[in-house]
Each structure stands twice: as structure tokens, then as C-alpha cells.
């Protein structure tokens, strides 16, 4: 039996993509590596379990869910917002309460942040033709016209977070200030992006990136994306 010697009991990379080949790394000792075929090509060191003395090790690996994968539907597929666990956030973005509602808060002024839907899209035999979503917002503190507002961008990226494709960039968001009325959201901004022609040879994810400038923004949840195929 081989054990992984590590300071973590999480297997790096996607355990479902762990290479079936384990490579011996010494001709005199029983030491091995197993390399994932995931984006980061992560490796784990393996040694016989009987040789474990004081090392941190793992034999049963915890794995982290990458969310739901949806496939082609002739009527369109919905990348759903089912609550806080529907998003992966970076750079200070967060899910916060606002009255009786939940919002995506884009972080603090000056930050560049992102929120990614954990539901991804996968279908090797079809192409994404267009996407549709809508959002309602309130902006951060400050009198209208006195600050540089927020820009939000919708991007599509692959499972390795490479080659992001910009689908939509908002105008500068400066209206509906939070300090005037915390729950006075903008009317729905409906975004329909046609003629995309995005192949889905690997899993595709959608993310909102925020350039907060002198303000931040809060977006009302739920917020779903509909994907149309050809």
C-alpha cells in the first residue's frame, strides 16, 4: 500500500484525472510520484505505508466538489444561482445580506474581483450560440458624478481558467447609490449576447469580474444565465 506524503489531505488537481501511471523515482528506494492530468499538472509523492514514521500522510483523500455540469438542451440550458454555494469568489467579492435579499458584493473600492458560477457547461457535440442574463444593482457610497464608477464584465473561460472570452462589459455604473437607498435597485439590465460560436471541447464556466475603481457595487440575487446552443 502506498501513502501520499503531504502537509494536506486534499489531493492536488482533479482526482478523477489522476494518471493511471505511477512513476518510480528511485532505483534504490521505494519512492514514487503520481501526476494529475489536471490543469496544474500537480504531483503527489508516494511511499510505502510501512515507511511512514512522523510524516504527515493521507491514504483516503478528501476531494472538493467542482459543482454541477449541465449539457445540451434544445430549449436552452440554465446555469442556475441556487444560493451562496453557487459561486466561487476571489479578491474580496462576497455574498452579503441586504434587507431580505442576498447580494453579490463586489469587494472594496479599488479592487479587481471576480465571482464564478460553480455550475459549468459541457457538451462536445454542440456549440454555444448565445447567452442571456440580467442584473439589478446598487452602487457604493458617494454622490453621483463625483467618482469613477464600477465596470462589470461577463467572461467565459475553460476548466483551466485559460483563454477567457469577454461576452459583455457594462457601462460605468454610477447610479442608484447605496447611501441614498440601500434597497433601491436599478431596473433589470437585460444582456443578450448573440453569435458567440463557442466550442465546448472542455468544461466552460461563466464569471463576472468587477473593476471597482472609486466605488463598489451590489448585485441582487438570484442571477441565472441561460445558454443557447446550435
Strand and helix order: EEEEEEEEEEEEEEEEEEEEE
What structural class is derived from the secondary structure elements?
mainly beta
Strands ordered across the widest β-sheet = 2-3-4-1-5
Question: Could you say what the CATH architecture of the largest domain is?
Answer: Sandwich
Description:
The chain folds into 2 domains: 57 residues, no CATH class; 161 residues, Galactose-binding domain-like (Jelly Rolls). It is globular and about 70 Å long. By secondary structure, the chain is an all-beta fold. The protein has a 5-stranded antiparallel sheet with strand order 2-3-4-1-5, with no helix packed on it. The protein has no helices and 21 strands. The relative contact order is 0.21.
Write the layout of secondary structure elements.
Elements lengths: L1 E4 L12 E7 L7 E5 L6 E6 L8 E2 L10 E2 L6 E3 L7 E4 L3 E5 L2 E5 L6 E6 L2 E2 L5 E9 L1 E3 L11 E8 L6 E5 L19 E5 L4 E2 L4 E8 L5 E4 L4 E5 L1
Parallel strand pairs: 6-12
Antiparallel strand pairs: 1-4, 1-5, 2-3, 3-4, 7-21, 8-11, 9-10, 10-20, 11-19, 13-17, 13-18, 13-21, 14-20, 15-16, 15-19
List keywords for this structure.
2 domains, mainly beta, 21 strands, 230 residues, globular
Amino acid at each position: 500500500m502506498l501513502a501520499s506524503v503531504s502537509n494536506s489531505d486534499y489531493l492536488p488537481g482533479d482526482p478523477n484525472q489522476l494518471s493511471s501511471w505511477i512513476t518510480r523515482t528511485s532505483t534504490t528506494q521505494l519512492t514514487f510520484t503520481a501526476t494529475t492530468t489536471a490543469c496544474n499538472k500537480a504531483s503527489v509523492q508516494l511511499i510505502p505505508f510501512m515507511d511512514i514514521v512522523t510524516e504527515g500522510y493521507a491514504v483516503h483523500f478528501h476531494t472538493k466538489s467542482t459543482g454541477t455540469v449541465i449539457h445540451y438542451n434544445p430549449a436552452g440550458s440554465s446555469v442556475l444561482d441556487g444560493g451562496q454555494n453557487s459561486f466561487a469568489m476571489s479578491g474580496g467579492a462576497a455574498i452579503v445580506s441586504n434587507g431580505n435579499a442576498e447580494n453579490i458584493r463586489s469587494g472594496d473600492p479599488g479592487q479587481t474581483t471576480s465571482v464564478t458560477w460553480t455550475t459549468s457547461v459541457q457538451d462536445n457535440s454542440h456549440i454555444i450560440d448565445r447567452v442571456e442574463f440580467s442584473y439589478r444593482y446598487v452602487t457604493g457610497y458617494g454622490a453621483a458624478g463625483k467618482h469613477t464608477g464600477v465596470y462589470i464584465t461577463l467572461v467565459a473561460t475553460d476548466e483551466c481558467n485559460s483563454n477567457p472570452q469577454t461576452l459583455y462589459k457594462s457601462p460605468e455604473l454610477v447610479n442608484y447609490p447605496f447611501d441614498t437607498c440601500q434597497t433601491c435597485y436599478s431596473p433589470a439590465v437585460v444582456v443578450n449576447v448573440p453569435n458567440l460560436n463557442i466550442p465546448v471541447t472542455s468544461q466552460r464556466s461563466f464569471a463576472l469580474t468587477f473593476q471597482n475603481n472609486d466605488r463598489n457595487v451590489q448585485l441582487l440575487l438570484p442571477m441565472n444565465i441561460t445558454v443557447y446552443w446550435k
